[in-house]
Amino acid sequence: MVEKTEMTTQEESRFEQRKLFYISGMYASIIAAYSVLRPLKSSVFLGFVGVNYQPVAKMLLMCVSPLILFLYSKVIDRLKRSQIVALFLGFYILVCISFIGILLHPTIGLLNTTTSPNRIAGWLFYTCCDLFSVLAVGTFWAFTNSISSPKSSRRSYGKIVATSRVAGIFSPMIGLLVMWYSPFSERINIPIMLGLTGFFIAIALLFIFLLHKRIPKEYLAGYAEETLKKSETQIAKKKTGMFEGLKMLLSKPYVFGIFAVVYSFEIILTFTEFQWQRWMSSHTHNSVSGITKYMFYYTSAFQVVALAIAVFGTTNLLKKVGVRTCLLLTPIIVSILMFGVAVHQGFITLAITLIMLRALHYAFNQPVTEILYIPTTRDIQFKSKAWIESFGKPLSKASGSAYNYLYTLQSSFISAISASLLPATVAGIWVVVAFLIGKKYQDTVTSGRVIGAADVVDDPEDAEESEESNL
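Below the sequence we write its predicted structure tokens.
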């Protein structure tokens, strides 16, 4: 009996390590792609359309969100979890191939150096790149949350993030090497980097294929499935539609709290990033190549800082102080950083603050926030999360962009006050929300409940069918 228990423990450990390897590889590949795509998003848009239209682009994303959510809900109801991730990764490979052709076009591509709001290619490219964080990164975390437990997440999420930061440093450095030493012109170099993005996404597809094939399905069951299975109940299998996620978001204070945390960070980040990009756009005269170089330097810098935070901070803090305390640390640190911006407004201060904000988010705030989804149902993990990512984030960016527009109309004295007013207000609300949802998370996990599991059935056949459909 003892030998059997030891063998079972060893087998579980082996498969958990293998699962961590595949998940880490998948996320590292996604972040490698995003670390190239994100700089290209800004440089192509600023070069094609212009920096003054960036707030408009963020606001227009809200108009696209309902369509995206409609299509997303259809996908969630029809596909298995691993297939959902694979579908969106495959979609972005097609996006990369399509825009390589567009950027190489002699009239609408990079050979046209005119900056104008009439250049549709710039708007489309910006929108597709902005949605990558929702459809690729967001879906990855939804999938990972659905196959993880609170205990395993505290051990593994820091490692997953640390691995991805290495990839996030590596890929923009390749981009810089291409920009500096490639014998080709800008017209060729930018599409080359877009092709590199597609290559990294293809590697992520390979990892999810290996995860699905080489890990038994019993090791891909998450907290919600295991908890409900122990209580001999299961979420009823039904097609809930695109508004189920919104319904959960508005009716469950816990889920709305997650939205508030995401909204708070994004609005502060949008405010800071726009100030820095105004300087960068002016300094480079809207040159796509010049802006791309700056963006690659910036991306590499925050990835290095993020790696340090992930290696030395995230996992250790999650183990020692827990999710609840970690949730409170981010708004406190953000408040300190924004106080520095209010006291001294300059390019160096903005650059350092922005690097720290990005690093803190990707290495610490994001994995801690993602853990909050673990004790929730599939609809919350995928559909409510989709609403938060594809509607909540654009809403916060639009709010920040509107504030940025008003900020530019003010005198320097009023601007200095405004620079501290918004972050201070948002951070204060953020601290309160973080405390409340941290307490709710802890109570839920301790009592072995699942948030959103109101509709259950006791039919074992229904339970088995629903469990198999999720894998």
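The chain has 16 helices and two strands.
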